[in-house]
Structure formats: C-alpha cells, structure tokens
Task: structure prediction
Amino acid sequence: MINNSLQHPPLRSDVKTKRRKSRIVHRFVERNLIHRISYDKYREKVRKVYGGRRGALLTKFSSISGHLQLGERLLRKRQFDPSGLRNILDIGSGAGQILGHLLKYADSQAQLTGIDISHKMLDRAQRRLKSTRVRLIAADLAQLPFPDSFFDCVTCGYVLEHLPNAYTGLAEISRVMTPGGRLLLFATEDSFSGAWTSRLWTCRTYNRRDLLGTCEEFGLTLAQELWFTRMHRFFRAGGICVELTKSGENHSPSPPISECATLDGHSTLE
Ligand SMILES: C[S@@+](CC[C@H](N)C(=O)[O-])C[C@H]1O[C@@H](n2cnc3c(N)ncnc32)[C@H](O)[C@@H]1O
Result:
C-alpha cells in the first residue's frame, strides 16, 4: 500500500486545518480572564495568585521542577552572556529566579534592579537572594517608573503574558532600554503546554511569530532564539525564549535610580 503522506508533501490547506484544530483545543484550555475584566481587576487577581499558595509553591519548587537549573544553564553556558552589562532590570522578578543567575554571572559592578507587582513575591525574592546588590521595587510592567534609555539590559521572564496585549509592555521595555541594549524575554507560547500554563497562572499566551513581529515594531530585533533543551524545542514546553537587541546608537548616561517613582507610592525594598 502506498503511503500518501510520503507521495506528496502535506497540502497547505491540510496544515492550516490541523493548526486551526489545535488552536481550537488550545483556546478551550486557555484561560481568557485577562480579556474579560478590567486591567485593574485583573492585576489584583494576579497579585492574589502570586501572593498566595501558588506563588509560595513556585518559590519552593522552581528548583525541583528544573526551571531554575535550566534558566541558569543559559547564563552559565553563556548562551545569554551578561558580561559587560552595567545596569540590568529584571521585570516580574517573582522569587528572584533570574536575579539569582545575574548575581552569579553578571559583572560584580553591574547594578541589578528587580520589579514585581506582588509585594509578597518581592519579599520572597529578598529572602531567597539575601543580597544587598539587588534593588527590589514594587512596580508594574505596564508603567515602568524609570526614565527613557535607562538600562543596557532588561530581562523579562514569563511576565508579558500577564498583560492583555504585548504592546504596552514592549513599549515600556523598549523605552527604558538604551539603544543597542539587550533584552532576554521568556513568554508563554500558544502551544498545548502553554494553554495549560495559562490555566494554572491565569495568564494569556502568545504566538511566537506575532510576538516577534510586535517586538520589531518597537525596535526590538531578534538576536537569537534560545532553547533550554531539545524537548523544549520539540514540544515548545518552555515557551518563547529569545534575546532581542534594541536598534540604534547608544547615548546619554542613566540618572541615579533613587530619582525613580514606584508603584502605589510603595518604596523600594533594600
Ligand atoms: C511566572 S513569575 C516569573 C518569575 C521569574 N521572572 C521567572 O522567570 O522565573 C511571574 C511574575 O511576574 C509578576 N507580574 C505579573 N504581572 C506583572 C506586571 N504587570 N508587572 C510586574 N510584574 C508582574 C508576578 O507577580 C510574578 O511574580
């Protein structure tokens, strides 16, 4: 018997139908609360999710799940090399997973700042990191309390999916980055595992190509796609992991960080 799939490459329409079907399954699983309520209400929900038991579990189990080690490997193997960076912002620091790696692998003179909307997560990060080198601030990615062209590097791990659309977040990220600055971005993908992640963490997912297209609109050009493991690449289970560069020339030095405003008037945690 002749195997038809070997005779002809799959028709475009077949591929499209298959994609549409899997998207329907994803949509059924994916949580779309983010699109159903106001951003203020949604933000409160996110604070509760991370401030509560799930955030505590994330803090405790990120090393058991391998999430911590896989992230660290990207920096240890210099797939993302933080050498030479002087002023780094980590957005949505959570329990300080990425900040912990930066403390280890970035230059010792590099200034490190972490922001999060959850005060509870900032407390957890502070207790876990036990470092005076990191400045932790309560702030929202949608409205970053920093001047333009302030950081030569931004890391943003699984936070953009907590905004209804990527535009606001990417506009803010791009604004605070120096031209030529580097962005390490992790985001939940519109894959099957991403849909389950969205259900667990009450977030949305992004289509890889669409997200990279939106990044381009803000002058953030893809430098490299990163993969934690071969399994990640095959199943897209770790989401979208990319390094992007902000186009343009480098200019004006950053003002001191103490001049920055913070979320709800909450002070920095030092
Ligand atoms: C999944 S955790 C990511 C932790 C860490 N970045 C990592 O990669 O493991 C997401 C974090 O983003 C924070 N977050 C969610 N929405 C945010 C927003 N709009 N601005 C700042 N932080 C936000 C949450 O409170 C939570 O601590």
